[in-house]
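pls design
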């Protein structure tokens, strides 16, 4: 059982993941307004999301190295600070005049800020397994990993509901950008005061993680992770489903727009998908902590998630709100239940390395590849609400 100090520390981690979720989806969750604000097409709006995936490919290994060598606090604080810088650069872009004939200045500074903020996300996404290994005993690690990991998805659900609510048109876009910048500042404050390690290790394995018994050079250990057959299978599984899940939750408002659903309604689909996923992960984490049936859950949920992705292709049509939202929820429930299980299995596959953060980094890296592929295959013209075209 975690003590109050441990739980407070975990809320710091959760707050950072929530902030990065809002900054990530500031523009793509309100694509029409963002196009008017930035004077660009839908492809550029999608790029604001894709930048997060590209940044992860570069910064993911860096964050894994920092967690193993510099510790949790320094790594999280570094990520939080660069997110603040990026978020406020995006807001300052609001003061640069932008017209359809000359969108350059505002758009350029926005993208620069987005790249900087995106570079912070791996530091928040990769920490849950490392944090759970250091701060929790074996009986609570899967649940702790689940809470930290799903907080980013929880933020995505909130963002898809809140940002469309406060962004009614292109003129109110700057308000959303400001709210996200303030949230980034709020998240960095508690990170300054968090502890790097518990005063007393909660278990022998946690003590081992703190001592860093692995004496091999970092890159030698990294090579072992990359050649571990069981881990590679898990990485492919995790990457495929998380990549599809994140791409769908990001683009779902654009997928449904051609069938008469506006941004707010599309946000309900994304929120249903993510909230149901949170419920699935919330159930799976404690259950797996008790019975350790990792393999059984994977064999059950993978076929179900695949089936619901296929069904989704056939239910998206006009005047079928209930059907779309039900399938979205079932898709999220089956996909996200895999998250805490696969993350904890990734750590279990590499116990001799004590590289929890790097293991998560590899798994998430595969997910970013899949997300880029999904975004790259989708082009949606939303400039005219009455004539929406989708090309895949």
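designed seq:
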């Amino acid at each position: 059982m975690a003590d109050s100090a441990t739980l407070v520390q975990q809320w710091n981690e959760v707050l950072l993941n929530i902030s990065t979720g809002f900054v990530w989806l500031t523009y793509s969750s309100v694509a029409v307004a963002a196009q008017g604000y930035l004077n660009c097409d839908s492809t550029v709006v999608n790029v604001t999301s894709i930048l997060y995936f590209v940044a992860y490919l570069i910064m993911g290994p860096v964050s894994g190295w920092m967690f193993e060598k510099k510790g949790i606090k320094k790594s999280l604080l570094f990520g939080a600070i660069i997110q603040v810088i990026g978020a406020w650069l995006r807001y300052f872009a609001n003061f640069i005049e932008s017209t359809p004939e000359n969108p350059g200045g505002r758009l350029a500074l926005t993208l620069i800020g987005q790249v900087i903020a995106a570079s912070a996300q791996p530091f928040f996404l990769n920490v849950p397994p490392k944090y759970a290994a250091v701060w929790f005993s074996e009986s609570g690690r899967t649940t702790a990993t689940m809470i930290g990991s799903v907080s980013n998805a929880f933020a995505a659900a909130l963002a898809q509901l809140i940002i469309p609510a406060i962004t009614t048109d292109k003129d109110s876009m700057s308000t959303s950008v400001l709210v996200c910048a303030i949230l980034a500042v709020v998240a960095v404050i508690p990170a300054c005061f968090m502890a790097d390690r518990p005063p007393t290790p909660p278990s022998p394995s946690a003590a081992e993680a703190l001592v860093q018994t692995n004496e091999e050079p970092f890159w030698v250990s990294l090579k072992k992770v990359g050649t571990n057959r069981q881990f590679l299978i898990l990485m492919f599984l995790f990457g495929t489903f998380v990549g599809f899940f994140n791409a769908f939750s990001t683009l779902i408002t654009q997928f449904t727009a051609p069938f008469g659903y506006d941004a707010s309604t599309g946000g309900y689909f994304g929120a249903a998908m993510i909230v149901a996923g949170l419920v699935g992960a919330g159930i799976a984490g404690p259950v797996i902590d008790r019975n350790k049936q990792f393999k059984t859950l994977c064999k059950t949920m993978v076929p179900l998630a695949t089936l619901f992705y296929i069904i989704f292709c056939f239910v998206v049509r006009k005047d079928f709100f209930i059907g779309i939202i039900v399938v979205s929820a079932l898709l999220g429930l089956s996909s996200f239940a895999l998250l805490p299980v696969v993350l904890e299995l990734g750590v279990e596959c590499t116990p001799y390395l004590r590289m929890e953060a790097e293991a998560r980094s590899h798994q998430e890296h595969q997910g970013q590849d899949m997300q880029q592929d999904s975004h790259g295959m989708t082009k949606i013209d939303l400039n005219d609400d009455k004539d929406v075209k989708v090309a895949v």
